[in-house]
Amino acid sequence: MENYRIALLTIGSVLAGVGALAFACELYLRLTAARLDVHNKHCYVTGGSQGLGKAIAKDLARRGAHVTIVARREPVLREALAEIRAVAVHPKSQHFVVADVTSHEDSVRAVGEAAEQQGRPVELLFAVAGVSNPGVFLEQDPGLLSDTMRLNYAGTLYTVHEVVKRMVAGGIEGRIVLVSSTLGFFGLVGYAGYCATKFAVRGLAEALRMELLPHNIAVHCYFPGTIFTPGYEVENRTKPQVTKDIEGPDGLTPEQCSRGLLRGLRRGEFAIATDPVSMLFRCATRGAMPNNNVVVDLFVAAIGWLALAPWRFYADRLVCHAVPKPKAE
């Protein structure tokens, strides 16, 4: 009986110590995070006409930000702008710019035009514009795969480069938020072209986080899972059934993702995940990315190391049974 009590006391002491350490790590993370203050700041959101971009723009406007949304279609931008102004603290400080972010020249022009409209340079950038074109790799046109890379990666790269260049020249200690995906952590059948683009965005974010430290420009990368947007409905038309089976029906609304993203920014996280699956992959495949809460991340990573091997076996089995082998000629 005495040994039983000693064992319980030992386990309780260890758990209490781990809990205290986790709390201390959380406290340190929050105290050392740069304060997220968007009030009267110029926030530039690419892909801001719908989905996640529009949700972010509305949340920023509610907090007093001067928001510029950027997209290609002016009618959709006008509709989004009306929604943003309806909830904004400063309705007259909400603007849009029509631009194709896959063009370097257009991206440079748009950033300059936004600064002129707002009367101040960009202080927070949210590079949200992106597209997913799922399908069986061998059946997809290489041109479509190139177009996906052009929007998801080059469209992010051009805007980030111009904004950062202006921030450094103006001595602005701003924030850069890039949007990758859960599929920036691992590859999945049906998403060959998309995964490559989101791995590229992750790599860009990690490199810029280090490179911009001397300029006090904070860099963050958001890794959302499934988001129920108009784009999601479109991508399901070409998505292989086996991909749908592995993904499952779970996901978040753009509004839920936006709130989670801003919460991660307030906590000072570099890699931000807003759903359990994304958090699991973030911790288990972190590489050299900074931890958020060290104790929690290590605990989740341990779960991932145990869970991901059987999950991979299950996913591989599904694919092998779902995708027919090509017949020999």
TrEMBL record:
It comes from the Eukaryota. It catalyses: sphinganine + NADP(+) = 3-oxosphinganine + NADPH + H(+). Pathway: Lipid metabolism; sphingolipid metabolism; Sphingolipid metabolism. SUPFAM superfamilies: NAD(P)-binding Rossmann-fold domains. Keywords: Endoplasmic reticulum, Lipid metabolism, NADP, Nucleotide-binding, Oxidoreductase, Sphingolipid metabolism. This is 3-dehydrosphinganine reductase. The gene is TSC10. Catalyzes the reduction of 3'-oxosphinganine (3-ketodihydrosphingosine/KDS) to sphinganine (dihydrosphingosine/DHS), the second step of de novo sphingolipid biosynthesis. One of its GO terms (molecular function) is 3-dehydrosphinganine reductase activity. Its EC number is 1.1.1.102. It is an enzyme of class 1 (oxidoreductase). The keyword Oxidoreductase applies. Residues 41-225 form the Ketoreductase domain. GO terms for cellular component: endoplasmic reticulum membrane. Signal peptide: none annotated. It is found in: Endoplasmic reticulum. Pfam families: adh_short (PF00106). It comes from Coemansia spiralis. One of its GO terms (biological process) is sphingolipid biosynthetic process. Its main location: endoplasmic reticulum.
